[in-house]
């Protein structure tokens, strides 16, 4: 399985994901937090995510039911990934943080109805 690397804007947080296709299964979420983040996410199994650097620079944010845990860089503020509430076996990464990410057309990005769970 190919490995894709990523980082926050300043490079303090680095990570890698193992996935057959980085551009598949992309989604946005319409919960109140994700609407404000306005990002595209890529889900992977927890065992296919590796934080490769910058653990000391990671900050976290939990809200609502305190299940999902959102991670962002304490230096540049970029959201990098989160532990999913809807599927605790997965981590979703900020697709835009992957090296050489090319944003696909909007019709190729799914929508998760997170607002219904708030």
Strand count = 10
Give the fraction of residues assigned to helices: under 10%
Radius of gyration from the alpha-carbon trace, in angstroms: 13 Å
Overall 3D shape: globular
Q: Flag low-confidence runs.
A: none
Strand line-up of the largest beta sheet: 4-9-8-7-6
**Class by SSE composition:** mainly beta
Mean pLDDT: 93
Residue fraction in strands: 35-45%
Distance between the termini: 35 Å
Largest sheet: 5 strands, antiparallel
| Strand and helix order | EEEHEEEEEEE
Total helical segments: 1
What would you note in describing this structure?
- This protein has 1 helix and 10 strands.
- The protein is mainly beta and 118 residues long.
- The strands form 3 sheets. It has a 5-stranded antiparallel beta sheet, with no helix packed on it. The protein has a 3-stranded antiparallel beta sheet with strand order 1-2-5, with no helix packed on it.
- A hairpin with a 6-residue loop joins strand 8 and strand 9.
- It is globular.
- The model has no long low-confidence stretch (mean pLDDT 93).
């Amino acid at each position: 399985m190919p490995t894709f690397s990523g980082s926050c804007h300043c490079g303090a947080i680095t990570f890698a994901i193992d996935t057959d296709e980085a551009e598949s299964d992309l989604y946005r979420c319409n919960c109140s937090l994700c609407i404000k983040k306005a990002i595209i996410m890529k889900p992977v199994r927890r065992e296919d995510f590796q934080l490769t650097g910058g653990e000391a620079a990671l900050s976290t944010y939990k809200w609502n039911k305190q299940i999902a845990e959102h991670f962002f860089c304490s230096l540049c503020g970029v959201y990098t990934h989160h532990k999913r509430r809807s599927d605790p076996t997965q981590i979703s990464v900020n697709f835009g943080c992957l090296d050489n990410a090319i944003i696909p057309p909007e019709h190729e990005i799914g929508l998760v109805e997170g607002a219904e769970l708030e």
